[in-house]
């Protein structure tokens, strides 16, 4: 098996300047393609935020064309779109359009994240989410695109939620660090999901703690990567590492890239 693609989440190569850890880099989004390529990344996961999706380049025909130009110029793929979930009545139409445009830039996965006010607390939350996602899921299935669900929910519970859709086009988008922080056995969860893992975020966290620089938390990356190889995962490993006030974001992600790339070489080759 060859080494899987190593990518970075859009926005991580741009200074935060007080905007927090995750934001769309409106001023530098085009430059990030060249910066990612220089580091060695072969992929960028496109980020769409719920509060600015209409301003996101993925929303417009011109933006889609520009993304494709930048991909070709820098030899970068965009295998996934980091989307969002909303309980707003307009959401199914919004995410459906992002699924369609994601497909136009080569994204085979659109991530749906359930965090903060959208956590899947109970069956009522899950039932409402199913209603919101059934239409978009049909749109995705028609185009051979997978909806990747990211949620801080233990594997068995999330597996039941995924099964309830009755579709092969909705799977688990696994965030390694988030699940480590919950105290679950990540290796066993990877084995549980197996082929139902459609994407991975490479993040490090302390047990019941916040994100820390990759390699400084409680994640046994070697064991997790080995488990991913054993279940046949060959998709992209997307960096979503912690930021640092002491290190430039580009240099920090270069270190992350080198750390993960070396581990993948040892694991996959």
User: Main beta sheet, described?
Assistant: 8 strands, parallel, barrel
Q: Rg to the nearest angstrom? A: 17 Å
Q: Give the number of domains.
A: 1
- For the record, the CATH class is Alpha Beta
Any low-confidence stretches, pLDDT <50, length ≥5?
none
- Mean pLDDT across the residues is 97
Report the structural category.
alpha/beta
Q: Got a strand count? A: 10
Number of helices: 9
Relevant CATH superfamily = Divalent-metal-dependent TIM barrel enzymes
Shape: globular
Strand order of the largest sheet: 1-2-3-4-5-6-7-10
CATH architecture: Alpha-Beta Barrel
Name the beta content range: 15-25%
List the helices and strands in order. EHEHEHEHEHEHHEEEHEH
Q: Alpha-carbon distance between the termini?
A: 7 Å
Helix content: 40-55%
CATH topology: TIM Barrel
How would you describe what is shown here?
- The mean pLDDT is 97.
- The chain has an eight-stranded parallel beta barrel with strand order 1-2-3-4-5-6-7-10, surrounded by six helices. The chain has a two-stranded antiparallel sheet with strand order 8-9.
- Helix 8 (221-230) packs across helix 9 (249-268).
- The protein has nine helices and ten strands.
- The chain is an alpha/beta fold.
- It has one domain: Divalent-metal-dependent TIM barrel enzymes (TIM Barrel, Alpha-Beta Barrel), CATH 3.20.20.
- It is globular and about 45 Å long.
- The protein starts with 5 loop residues before the first strand and ends with a helix.
């Amino acid at each position: 098996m060859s080494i899987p693609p190593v990518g970075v989440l859009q926005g991580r190569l741009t200074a935060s300047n007080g905007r927090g850890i995750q934001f769309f880099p409106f001023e530098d989004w085009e430059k990030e393609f060249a910066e990612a390529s220089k580091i060695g990344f072969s992929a960028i996961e496109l980020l769409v935020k719920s509060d600015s999706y209409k301003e996101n380049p993925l929303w417009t025909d011109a933006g889609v064309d520009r993304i494709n130009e930048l991909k070709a110029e820098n030899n970068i793929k965009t295998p996934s779109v980091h989307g969002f979930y909303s309980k707003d009545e307009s959401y199914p139409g919004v995410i459906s359009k992002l699924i369609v445009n994601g497909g136009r830039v080569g994204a085979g996965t659109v991530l749906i994240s359930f965090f903060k006010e959208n956590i899947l607390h109970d069956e009522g939350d899950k039932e409402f989410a199913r209603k919101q996602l059934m239409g978009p899921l049909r749109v995705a299935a028609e185009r051979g695109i997978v909806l990747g669900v990211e949620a801080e929910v233990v594997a068995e519970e999330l597996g039941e939620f995924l099964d309830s859709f009755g579709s092969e086009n909705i799977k688990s988008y696994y965030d390694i660090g988030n699940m480590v922080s919950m105290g679950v056995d990540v290796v066993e969860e990877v084995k549980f999901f197996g082929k139902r893992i459609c994407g991975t975020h490479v993040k490090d966290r302390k047990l019941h703690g916040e994100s820390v620089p990759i390699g400084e938390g409680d994640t046994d990356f070697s064991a997790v990567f080995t488990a991913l190889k054993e279940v046949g995962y060959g998709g992209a490993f997307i960096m979503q590492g912690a930021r640092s006030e002491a290190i430039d974001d580009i240099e920090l992600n270069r270190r992350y890239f080198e750390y993960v790339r070396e581990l993948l070489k040892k694991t996959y080759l």
